[in-house]
UniProtKB/TrEMBL annotation:
GO terms for molecular function: acyl-CoA dehydrogenase activity. This is Acyl-CoA reductase. SUPFAM superfamilies: ALDH-like. It comes from the Bacteria. Keywords: NADP. InterPro entries: Ald_DH/histidinol_DH, CoA_reduct_LuxC. Pfam families: LuxC. The keyword NADP applies. GO terms for biological process: bioluminescence. It comes from Aestuariibaculum sediminum.
Amino acid sequence: MNLQQRINAFVKLGDFIRQFSNDTVVKQNTVEFNDMFFDGFQHQLKLAEEHNGWFTQENIKFALKGWSESLTADKFKTWLSPYDIQETEQKEVAIIMAGNIPLVGFHDFLTVLITGHKVLVKQSSNDKHMLPYLAKYLEFVEPGFKGRIKFTEDKVENFDAVIATGSNNTARYFEYYFKNKPSIIRNNRNSVAVLTGNETQNELEKLSEDIFRYYGLGCRNVSKLFIPKDYNFDAFFNAMYKWHPIIEKAKYANNYDYNKAVYLMSEFDMLENGFLMIKEDQSYASPIATVFYEYYENLDEVKKKIVADEKQIQCVVAKGFTENEIPFGATQKPELWDYADSVDSVEFLLSI
């Protein structure tokens, strides 16, 4: 199985996934092995939501839509053309996945297989229904993947390299436990937005997507705002209002009520609109239903702070602020070449 065969298999997987990425699911007769897999994957999507209340059908479909748009021949060409991917010795690469948003570990899974290695996956208990089913579909459209994909619920053993994602505490454990193996270890990161007060209503509405998508649980979700001293929050709150139905979701509402009670009892100053609280705070990781903000005197000081704290930051959302900024509304639409923590996992896998 050469690189082009692997790419072709994932493009077919993208065709399969695309059927489930819209509000109305429509079975396409042109998709390979659809009679065998279509109904079963619909069942897996229901199980995913029943098992994890944060995984609503809306958020699952949003994730699937993103992957269906990424798994195309053109996207693979753009992504992989800078690399020299040779058919060399297969290594066993363990992936320890997070489970904060649907299919959050899929990019690592894809990258290991596309570079020609075998994969040993340890999933989070929060997200364990979709990926094994998609892996089985891959094995049918490309039998060369059989024997290259394994899942385990036990301790990962007998591997050559590892990609592990977890909290700051588990990352320290990973660094110790995997110290003798080639590794990529990821910990908690958060995303920030740098506002000037000159943003349009449309830009702020796009920012609301960066804040609320996946209930704010992703590392690419904006959890912190940098704002000028004289910032007026009226336009910001007006732009957020389109997301007010989010408070009807019990898990989100429970977190909102709890965090609001904590702030009130602690007599913290905060602003809120019935479904979102904003609070002045130096930290980056804000609780669910809360966004922190920090005032700045000038943009140069914000740039220095972001550089100093770069290991805590995943994305910087802004307009005309820095070279690697993300446009408003685009944090949850990463491309294949947008690597977590800016660590090139293809380069890593080609080097082991």
